């Protein structure tokens, strides 16, 4: 199920949180509504950890992770690193890496099996990503944008990419990632997908400006609905779109 | 009756005279220093004499002057005149993100239905104006047209009838916020009266612009709004709508800087408080030492009859600055 949330009047849910299959990171300082939205959905299944990274609240854009590990930029403080190591499950490897491009969330889009990275990432960083996150790494661009982590939201069951991605690019990426991809928007037309939403295998959180159409596309591509038939989106939307038959 | 033949999309080119527009942080700090210069040089007419008296004179003024002089030297070489065109448009749905960005702090960080509020402003095409950059026509990229509009939004102004929109969640939340935040009991009673019983005669004047927006934009912006309100009282299709624009009062919610030592500054502050809101927004020219001031919200109620006076004062303010 996809939920709409907002962080202090900002609809950028993917900036202030990071959701994976094994844990969820949430920025500190927002109202309790933000935190409790996550708790309500996730608290019995995975830990929801309040944290900051490098003293900032934009944690979703600074770190990259999946169920196997979490990569943090070099600007992360020692206390934050320790706090994360203590709060996350033991099987999650928390690693701080020395990379010039410190907004790892913007440079890396990953699920539990495969990762797309910024073309200019260091070779060592690429190897670390493959090691710590246990993924196969591909250097790619999305619709000509090098910040793949910003313009793509990825889970193990589907992906949503920048609306201007061409069909050929969609096919190519879909083959690489081995999941169905859809080009769409979030937060009422925003193209920065990963900033507007965060997703894992069974739930998604989108900004409060997300329209009902965008939400149904998200639920469909990430297979968040109970009956995840491809035709169900057409049938259900038909009822709401068509008023009467002439 | 009432057909003025107004084109649907009214564009007013506000050609600004070439003036130093501070679009870079360096230029802004030079402007600041330059405008600060008259005050700091006044008490110290002979800098050279002071510098020779080591340890006697207050070292601050001569240093300040020296800094400004050197920056003025740099200024002569590095100053750039930037021509900018601003265009006024009727609000349209594509402006959603731009207007939302401008109104982010409207109710101080309280989480409320800002999206709904922005929708109300954008639906009211007859009264309301957005200001965009005039350079758009040259950047005609087919796909990016819509996006350029969003990013180029510099200012928004509108007037919403509180009674007409009273059922919307955002207006209810706004009214609740204003009543909660009011510290003075008697003022709160009057405000409650305005917001509830007399809501159909009260207009919420929403005016917001980017921080460094050139001041020359402001009088035409307010002129546009008040003209549109008076046109709407004649042009709207139904009698109900026409009446909804006959405002008796305007409510403005804005930000001011108030000196922390309230008593001392009350006299000075009340001057600023009595004037309409735009003076407050231009306080950057007036207050230098921000550390003595704290930021506060201000809610003001203005009688609609005073509007012509406001327009005149606006024009004179720009003329003298």
TrEMBL record, chain A:
Compartments, record wording: Cytoplasm; Nucleus, Nucleolus
Record keywords: Cytoplasm, Initiation factor, Nucleus, Protein biosynthesis, Ribosome biogenesis
Domain of life assignment: Eukaryota
Stated name of the protein: Eukaryotic translation initiation factor 6
Classification via SUPFAM superfamilies: Pentein
Known role: Binds to the 60S ribosomal subunit and prevents its association with the 40S ribosomal subunit to form the 80S initiation complex in the cytoplasm. May also be involved in ribosome biogenesis.
Homology family: Belongs to the eIF-6 family.
CC per GO annotation: cytoplasm; nucleolus
Any single biological process term in GO: cytosolic ribosome assembly
UniProt-listed Gene3D superfamilies: L-arginine/glycine Amidinotransferase, Chain A
Quaternary structure note: Monomer. Associates with the 60S ribosomal subunit.
GO molecular function: ribosomal large subunit binding; translation initiation factor activity
Keyword Protein biosynthesis: yes
Main location: cytoplasm
Pfam families xrefs: eIF-6
InterPro entries: eIF6 (IPR002769)
Annotated gene: LOC103709397
UniProtKB/TrEMBL annotation, chain B:
Signal peptide bounds: 1-29
Keyword Signal in annotation: yes
Highest taxon listed in the record's lineage: Eukaryota
Annotated GO CC locations: nucleus
Keywords associated with the record: Signal
Positions with biased composition (Polar residues): 37-52
A Pfam family matched in the record: BCCIP
Annotated family: Belongs to the BCP1 family.
Stated name of the protein: Protein BCCIP homolog isoform X3
Native source species: Phoenix dactylifera (Date palm)
